[in-house]
Amino acid sequence: MTNDNVGNPASGLVSRVYDLVTRHWPLLAFLSSALLLAIAHAFERFGGLAPCHLCLKQREIYWAAGAVGLIAVVLQRTPLWPRLRLPANLLLGALFLYGAGLATYHAGAEWKWWPGPSSCSGAGQAAAANLEAMLKGTAKIKAPACDKAAWVFLGLSMAGWNVLISLKLAVWSVLAALRKSEASA
Fold it and tell me: How far apart are CA 149 and CA 127, in angstroms?
């Protein structure tokens, strides 16, 4: 890093954050994926919000991205990393971009901009408390509907927030991929 930012401390801070994030992106991508999965499971477990079909599909993206991130963290400690840095970070970017697209589809179904999948047209809420009644045959559980937002904050549902978060993660992945390697920096 050069001292081009001596006169502007804010610019220097941005440069340092950029350097830190892009240098350690596989670890941060892994940790971000793990955190988002933990938050989703907390909403389910403690908030009682059962996931719909599309919610579960969105979680799969974070499981995949977390696995790629963890493998990349290990590869960073090998001589292979200089050749694998670009494809690993681009793969993370592609996963997060796919996740943003899936979340956009889900949010659009919630806003009634287009229909959701037929596998997601349930009208009821599944809850752990209903499991015993279902096993006894006295109650039936319907999967949550994909076109009904179960939680909204600042005008966005979980799917809407997921669009923004996934896009941010995709952008950071591409920035990490385009980062000059330490050898040429």
Answer: 16
Q: What whole-number distance in Å separates Cα of residue 181 and Cα of residue 177?
A: 9
* 121 vs 138: CA distance, rounded Å: 22
Rounded to 10°, the helix 25-45/53-75 angle is 150
pTM, 2 dp: 0.77
Domain boundaries, the chain: 12-117+150-178
**What does the DSSP assignment read for 32-99?**
HHHHHHHHHHHHHHTT-----HHHHHHHHHHHHHHHHHHHHHHHTTSTTHHHHHHHHHHHHHHHHHHH
What CATH class has 12-117+150-178?
mainly alpha
Give per-residue pLDDT as tens, 67-106.
999 999 999 999 998 999 999 999 999 999 999 999 999 8
Digit-coded pLDDT (tens) for 8-26: 666 778 888 888 888 889 9
Of residues 32, 35, 29, 37, the one with CA closest to residue 92: 29
